[in-house]
Amino acid sequence: MAESLSKIAAVDPVWNRIVDEAETAIQEEPLLGGMIHSTILHHGSLERALAYRLAMKLGSGEMSEQLLREIADEAYASDDGLGAAARADITAVYERDPACHRYIQPLLFFKGFQAIQSYRVAHWLWRQGRKDLAYFLQMRISESFGLDVHPAARIGRGIMIDHAHSIVIGETAVVGDNVSMLHSVTLGGTGKETEDRHPKIGNGVLIGAGAKVLGNIRVGDCSRIAAGSVVLQDVPPCKTVAGVPARIVGEAGCSQPSLTMDHNFPSGGQA
């Protein structure tokens, strides 16, 4: 796997761009030189840098940074998909978040990106049957980043979580590829069910701030959920829903709402 990572790094435009931006950032702000060197420039690949960064953020008196780094290194070495997902997530944040001007920012500063990469390691542990350790990571992710994502949840690639505070994603939730969501979103249950009880979010969905999607329901591809909505029923593809409880108020307005990040309703209240 080490040979595989070195080959990826040699032709890895995301990692090469991060390294270039790191060198520029040190020139512009020398006081961050130590942190940027230790987080990025001392590593040969994005996977290695992520393992180090996540360990530094999640380490505590209960489990050291070194142990967490070894766990993350093992996960990245065992599953190439984790690194591929991280690259898709960084690109998604850069393309969709107007506050993100460099690829280096999610890796260094954005807790939504860092939390999702930490979840991916926890999910890998869950799939390995190491559930107690996965739960431990879930706890530390919640304590460190303010997001509570169950390690059994299934989350696709190209995920952008803006601001990211108070996100809750339940155990049987599924989130597709290229989904964007803002802070205070809940993908939760509706009671004390113990089986499949959480939402299934399609590809390309945009979920506004404070929206609650509850129960084992499906949100179709490329739909929009307006901020503050409470969604209790299935949402067809390419629709906009709003309200408490949410109802269809129109079309999604474009083919890829999660990419445009457009939360506005046209005049007259129809999307």
Automatic annotation (TrEMBL):
EC number of this enzyme: 2.3.1.30
Top EC category: transferase
Domain Serine acetyltransferase N-terminal span(s) in chain numbering: 14-118
Gene Ontology biological process terms in this record: cysteine biosynthetic process from serine
PROSITE patterns assigned to the protein according to its UniProt record, in alphabetical order: HEXAPEP_TRANSFERASES
A molecular-function term among this protein's GO annotations: serine O-acetyltransferase activity
Annotated NCBIfam families: cysE, EPS_EpsC
The protein's name: Serine acetyltransferase
Natural source organism: Donghicola tyrosinivorans
